[in-house]
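Lab meeting tomorrow. Please check the following:
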Amino acid sequence: MSARSARVSKPPVIVLVRPQLGENIGKAARAMLNFGLVELRLVAPRDGWPNPSAGPAASGADIVLEKAQVFESVADAVADCAHVYATTVRKRGITKPVVTPEQASRDIHAEEGRSAILFGPERSGLETDDVALARTIVTVPINPEFGSLNLAQAVILVAYEWSKHVPSVAEGGMALSQPTQEELAPPAPQDELDGLIGQLDAMLEDSGYYFPPDRVPSTRRTLRTVLTKAGWSSQELRTLRGVLSALEGRKRHRIS
């Protein structure tokens, strides 16, 4: 094992403090598992635990719900964690380091020991006493006229930032993937593009589009500039020429 992989940090613990709705706990679990986080701790959930509403909202993130632990207090929930982060967008009379989710994620990956991230109840967020237990405040720049994130949104924002710094499997981390993207077709050769431009030019000439005569060179240059900007593929050019041919054939049919 390399020196780097030996220092891979454990994923942070997500702590929901006094969550109110089972649906929101389930949605937070779903957000966690999307980015490889599975350790969920609940502090005094209002409607108790387990909560039958959590499962459907989790949309398959059952492993997170099954492993969830319940604690009576925030202090109990983070007792084994060396680094505690409190998420909030409200100003408080507490002097603590304030970082963004990205900086917090970098710190978590670099730190020794477990890290916990606190999220407050849906209606009001963390109380001042909850934040006082943390060593660092995590916040995001947000619209000052509307600084409200729902619980799952807050969790997914932080979880995503953490996932961006996860080492690869070869380095001792985990495999996170993104949807596959289809390769774009290469740009068509110039003669195919010239063929399209020539076909369009002939149709415009035939329709009387080019007028007045002294503007024709400028108009043709503008059209060529527009058509050469796109980087059309061969298939796209064939499709466009087919469209032009269909329009031209329809016009001839009307005339006859």
